[in-house]
Amino acid sequence: MTSTSRVMAVTGANKGIGFEVARRLLVDNPDATVLVAARSEERGKAAVQKLDTPRARFISLDMADAASITAFAARVAADYGRLDVLVANAGMLGMDVADTRASIAVNYTGNVRLARAVAPLLAPGSRFVFVSSRLGSLAALPGAALRATLTAPDLTVDALSRVMDAAADAADAGGAPALAAAGWDPNPYAVSKVGLTTLVRLLGRDEDRPGVWYHAVCPGLTDTGGNADAIAGLPGIVPLAQGADGVVWATRLGAEGGVNGAFWAEGRRVDYADQADMDGWKANVPAPELVTA
Ligand SMILES: NC(=O)c1ccc[n+]([C@@H]2O[C@H](COP(=O)([O-])OP(=O)(O)OC[C@H]3O[C@@H](n4cnc5c(N)ncnc54)[C@H](OP(=O)(O)O)[C@@H]3O)[C@@H](O)[C@H]2O)c1
């Protein structure tokens, strides 16, 4: 069946930025159904209850489980037949090198699978927004050969996935020194987000349906309430509403900048291969007025 009203989905929507994005999408789009995707039925249904509208619906999705991603797409296809906005927000903040494989699985591989699974549901007007991070800076990668591989104009998603798999293998086999030897900054979160932002570049480059847009966005260092200890003392912390605002804003971005697959932060396009541009948040750049109407 094809729904006549718009359908939007947010992954990892049971808390943090994802929950606030789902709440904002419901407020800003009174015609839309918003699917609250979560790996835990209990936490997902609790979030839906908090959103307190029949337009919010729980849907199961574990980004670390290929079968769950396939089932998610099949369920959206069967129940709605369309997907107008997908915010791929679910993410794992792995900071220990032992977390590298799991971080890549959730933050990178899960999103490759999700993009492939939902591609048939996207139509002109659809926006697929991936929540990435300024920490995933291509310019900060120590390895020149790795940088060249990842910036190659003809890089394919399969080739990128092989690079990410090799990073997971290196971390498992030799920890941080092996990752560094392969050219990475051995921070698993950064490794996975470099992969994600690069994936978005390739999805945008390869999309041949006019009006289907892929964006990567950094919400900024966002105080979600649950990460107070992790971010205490860091510069440029923004409140939850502002972090979510930047993500919601990206769901309305179309041809701005003329590039499909770009990386956005603080309401502007940022070059993730240019460290000066990526360092902007460290200077605590005030967020510009975002268009939220
Ligand atoms: N907060 C920041 O400063 C900041 C800055 C830059 C980028 N980001 C990005 O913004 C996104 C949201 O961050 P947040 O701060 O709101 O994080 P958060 O509060 O930790 O929320 C993360 C969400 O992802 C879900 N998740 C984790 N692993 C999953 C899996 N395998 N399958 C499905 N869902 C999974 C979590 O579900 P459970 O509750 O079940 O664990 C939770 O709903 C992430 O992608 C993060 O990398 C955040």
UniProtKB/TrEMBL annotation:
Swiss-Prot/TrEMBL keywords: NADP, Oxidoreductase
InterPro entries: NAD(P)-bd_dom_sf, SDR_fam
Domain of life: Eukaryota
UniProt GO MF annotations: oxidoreductase activity
Transmembrane segments: none
Cited Pfam families: adh_short
SUPFAM superfamilies reported in the protein's UniProt record: NAD(P)-binding Rossmann-fold domains
UniProt family annotation: Belongs to the short-chain dehydrogenases/reductases (SDR) family.
Record-given protein name: Uncharacterized protein
